[in-house]
């Protein structure tokens, strides 16, 4: 789908939902069966994100309970965002899991996903200033994020490149230290990264556009 299909304009203090209710597989862009609902708004200080991860029956098996540990090994909802409209090689990565735990880092991706070499400057949970919450149900979980605009960049910025991701288990895990693999989990995106054989999220040329009116 063209970039225009992954463009969102927000008016101040007004919630707006993503048109797409089903994320796409990162490998080939095919629609995933799990419904993922996302809406956003902004104010003078924060970008607000509310999300619902449905058809997620194994959320109770997530074991990470310490901020800035390797949440991406299990089930998460993720946001990648950078200032401007150019394809970024630096961006904020924010993850939240069903235990209401965060991973926060500024990513340096010099090859823009085509050659490796990624690195992350971690941001301490205490210094990030992110407000967050999670609610869980029988087969789903949902949450909210309030991301300080100052954490993303210049608070006067109106245009951003952004993408949203979800890792969701499709089977139960017997061991407590389990890690997601493509056979056991779906790696899905708002704007699919079209990574081919293996799932990959760090493909910033596929980030969508976010405009703050």
Automatic annotation (TrEMBL):
UniProt superkingdom: Bacteria
Identification of the protein by name: Carbohydrate-binding family 9-like protein
Source species: Emticicia soli
Taxonomic lineage of the native organism: Bacteria, Pseudomonadati, Bacteroidota, Cytophagia, Cytophagales
